Amino acid sequence: MAGSNHFFTSTTMLYLVFLYVHLLLFLRFSGVAVSQSIIQSLPGFVGALPFELETGYVSVDDSNDVQLFYYFVKSENNPTEDPLIVWFTGGPGCSVLTALMFENGPLYFKHAKYNGSLPTLMLNPNSWTKISNILYVDAPVGTGFSYSRSLEGSFTSDTKSAKQSYIFIRKWLMHHPEFFSNPLYICGDSYAGMVVPIIVQDISDGIEIGHKPSINLKGYLLGNPATDRHAELNSQIHFFHHMGILSDELLESAKKHCKGEYVKVDPSNVQCIKDLQAVSQCTAKLNPSHILEPSCGQVWTPKCKKIIRDRNLLEKNLCSNLISLPPIPLLKCRNYGHMLSYYWANNDGVRKALNVRKGTVQEWTRCNLDGINYLKNVKTSTGYHLSISKRHYRSLIYSGDHDANVPFFNTQTWIRSLNYSIIDEWRPWFVDGQIGGYTRTYANQMTFATVKGGGHTAPEYRPNECFNMFKRWLSYEPL
Amino acid sequence: MAGSNHFFTSTTMLYLVFLYVHLLLFLRFSGVAVSQSIIQSLPGFVGALPFELETGYVSVDDSNDVQLFYYFVKSENNPTEDPLIVWFTGGPGCSVLTALMFENGPLYFKHAKYNGSLPTLMLNPNSWTKISNILYVDAPVGTGFSYSRSLEGSFTSDTKSAKQSYIFIRKWLMHHPEFFSNPLYICGDSYAGMVVPIIVQDISDGIEIGHKPSINLKGYLLGNPATDRHAELNSQIHFFHHMGILSDELLESAKKHCKGEYVKVDPSNVQCIKDLQAVSQCTAKLNPSHILEPSCGQVWTPKCKKIIRDRNLLEKNLCSNLISLPPIPLLKCRNYGHMLSYYWANNDGVRKALNVRKGTVQEWTRCNLDGINYLKNVKTSTGYHLSISKRHYRSLIYSGDHDANVPFFNTQTWIRSLNYSIIDEWRPWFVDGQIGGYTRTYANQMTFATVKGGGHTAPEYRPNECFNMFKRWLSYEPL
Q1: What is the domain partition of chain A in residue ranges?
Q2: Catalytic residue ranges of B
Q3: Which BP terms from GO are recorded (chains A, B) (predicted)?
Q4: What are the φ and ψ backbone dihedral angles of A43, each rounded to 5 degrees?
């Protein structure tokens, strides 16, 4: 018994120590640092939400009070076992509401003329939350409803944002221990292509050195990802030529005169400049996010619209990046929905329902491109891809093939540069008997797929195809 | 007075001789050889037609009783002065109803589920007949409602069809002398690209040698025109690569192994055959007429569907080219409308309204590809383009840029091969402030234009853009 007692005492002691360590960890990552609330209904949506929505803040830098806002949507299928997706939107500076309301989230704005009342919300039948838990994060700080109360806290960079996102994920998981064991994927699109691979690397490094909580990281997914902006911008001229936007002769002339460099051009190279002016004439009025869709410009915020109307010159400067933009888009334009998002997310009732902290973000902006203090300190994320996929994290990289921002064939090019062997050769993938796009699988569990007819944010343009692609990939099925 | 009398007598004589010559000409080209009727209403269309429609037959080979059927729609603007367009559809063997009901004509089928009653007709707001008189011709013989009662008469070729079309135009004009002075354009799309330039050449030759009636030929217009089928088919592999349907590696391999020849392949060239099989795997389920639209196959005729259902093996052979085709397309498919055209054009009431001669065409087929006796005896029509545009006939060649049948850049290539100097350099053209496509004008009044997002029959996919393009070109305005 003594022995037994001794054993009891020592295991009790061990258990107490274990609890104490977890308590310390919990305290370090919790308290006022994390807030969360369950949302039963949302203004604009009729009735109770038929899915579980939680919003909240996670402090990722206590000394500078940097708070990242999130929307968490539980899987409508089996939240206990379905994967946990952490989703980041690009920009940098674009609110994750863009993904939640326009791409793969459970809601979207009814496309109807704005009459001054709150925009109506509808259910998205192709929401990825039908098969996965999705944690949508407004990152970096300054994006959407994320904020810092200090100037120092407002500064971020690719690597700093990744570090803060990693802190975010750890803290959020500590407060949601029921998701410890779910397979976890870090995902996003557009500029998130620069940051997601770094977050994956940071998590992976954390796992190797035994960071708590233990994260069941399985891989990552990226749509039309920025990877090397210089290479991508340089490749646009070829994409435009492929798509019939530039003539053969102009491409040949530009290749000859600019010698493959169309971004950092020597100002004394008159012939090259002349060719690039001709290129600009052909592309200036295109919609780069989907070359076949009408170009309707960007929309401004209701606040700035008011400022412009009131001709308040002082405040006008605050909107300097907005005042030269076109007026409310035509109803037929896809970005009419973007405009609706401004009216919705800046409505007091909506903010209250989402538990947005008063006075933290004066005006929600869909893409706060010029309003954040962000240093792009990573030139290319290919090294991160190489590093993490060699650690056996699986990946899906997809490209809407009508996007000129990140042309699909430049994505093919950097993937080829990783020198992975080909496992499953280039072939079409199908949805409902129709070609959804083309795919190829590489060693190190990397899959590339195009989404035929998709734009920069492919699920916005091809929702059914992208849902099926995502579902198959999550289930380890061939696309 | 005597002199005056003498003068009167001789001018009267001259006038009588003139009338006699015209009468002879008229008799040669008329009588039972031409029939025409004015249509006030059409089954499926509610109320009287708000435009003037005439249908009829013109005999183009009396000895073999070859009768070409036509639909003539008077301009809704100013028929006396607006140009006269003669429109031919491709195939060879596709009924011109395809153009009239799906492309640039005044009517289209309401896209609604077929319930056994006659399909409903609607007015096309972008009909080219709003600004021009259009004479739609079912050519060559065997197409649509055109027919021959003799076996010999059923045989045609590119050059013979062109000759018969020329006879058609002369005879039709003789019966419609009020259109003698209207500017005349010969137009069409797809395979009409092989024949229209020959017709223009024949008319031009006729003008030079003083054929009557005198034809006020101004030029021609062609959409996604076949010009050199071998070159076009060979260029498809590059088009598919440009559009992200083939991988870079597959294109490189095929180029290396097939040495630029992907159509007439040496069967012992195993590597090339292997590459082309991989190409086929990537393209087999594409819709070649518009690579972003669903592939819904071709539709069969109601009669053949009944034959297949009844398992009448003898008759089944008559439908051999149809029985392997898919069933009624999905409502969401563009070719659902094509199916409706079968039900409409084979309805007894419709045929009666159109004054189709009983017993001449048992079953109307949208594209009678295998049912005509047609010899493709012209390899390329570039020589005709060269010859006629040097005679100062103006031309507009346009390409829907998402068509794989006749890829736009192969059209650019043969135009470049004409060695015309460039008058107006490659630039976008606009409709409602949006890019409609790109254009370039060459010497000899030749204009090339792409239709952004257009398919093989561009006005079917981009009606507003194509109407504006046509209008500007007709008015001698820059696109």
Answers
A1: 34-229+377-475
A2: 190, 403, 456
A3: proteolysis; secondary metabolic process
A4: -55, 135
Helical (H) or strand (E) element with A101: helix A97-102
Which chain A residues have any C-beta within 8 angstroms of a chain B C-beta? Answer: 242-250, 278, 281-282, 285-286, 291-292, 294-295, 401, 408-409, 412, 416, 425-428, 430, 433-435, 438, 440, 450, 452-453
Contact residues for A315 (Cβ-Cβ < 8 A; gap 6+): A307
> How close does chain A come to B400, measured CA to CA in Å?
10
Is there a cis peptide before residue A92, judged by omega within 30 degrees of 0?
yes
Helix axes B270-283, B229-242, angle to 10 degrees: 70
Given this model, what pLDDT does residue B299 score? 65
pLDDT digits (tens, 9 = 90+) for B374-402: 999 999 999 999 999 999 999 999 999 99
ipTM: 0.87
Task: Return the DSSP state at B367.
Answer: B
User: Nearest CA of chain A to the CA of B197: how many Å?
Assistant: 25
Q: Report yes or no: A336 and A317 within 8 Å, Cβ to Cβ.
A: no
Give the three-state DSSP class for B67. strand
The CA distance from B441 to the nearest CA of chain A, in Å, is 13
Which residues of A are identified as catalytic?
A: 190, 403, 456
* Residue in A257, A246, A304, A253 with CA at minimum distance from that of residue A279: A246
Is this prediction's pTM over 0.80?
Answer: yes
- Cβ-based neighbours of B467, under 8 Å, separated by 6 or more: B104, B126, B127, B128, B130, B459
What is residue A297's predicted lDDT score, i.e. its pLDDT? 73
Instruction: Determine the Cα–Cα distance for residues A340 and B446; give it in Å rounded to an integer.
Output: 46
SS3 A5: helix
| Alpha carbons A246 and A281: distance in angstroms, whole number | 10
Q: How many whole angstroms separate alpha carbon A67 and alpha carbon A426?
A: 43
- Of A282, A295, A428, nearest to B285 by CB-CB distance is A428
Q: Which two tokens stand for residue B411?
A: 């059209």
- CA distances, B96 to each of A82, B345, B407, B414 (Å): 56, 12, 22, 26
Strands B66-73, B147-148: pairing is antiparallel
**Homologous superfamily of the A34-229+377-475 domain (CATH):** Alpha/Beta hydrolase fold, catalytic domain (3.40.50.1820)
3-state SS, residue B432? coil
Q: Which of A285, A292, A433 sits opposite B428 (nearest CB)?
A: A285
Q: How many Å apart are CA B431 and CA B451, to the nearest integer?
A: 11
C-alpha A355/C-alpha A38 separation (Å) is 9
Q: How far is CA B83 from the centre of its chain?
A: 17
Query: CA end-to-end span of chain B, whole Å?
Result: 60
Relative to beta strand A84-88, strand A184-189 is parallel
Q: Are strands B422-431 and B446-451 parallel, antiparallel or unpaired?
A: unpaired
Among A242, A426, A435, the residue with its CB nearest the CB of B250 is A426
Give the separation between CA B123 and CA B142, rounded to whole angstroms: 28
Are B469 and B451 within 8 A, CB to CB?
yes
Q: Amino acid letter at B232?
A: E
Residues of chain A with pLDDT under 70: 1-33, 298-327
Q: For every residue of A139-177, which 3-state class applies, written as one string?
A: CCCCCCCCEECCCHHHEEEHHHHHHHHHHHHHHHHHHCH
Q: Rounded to an integer, what distance in angstroms lies between the CA atom of residue A77 and that of residue A75?
A: 5
**pLDDT under 50 in chain B at which residues?**
1-9, 20-21, 23-24, 26-27, 30-32, 307-326
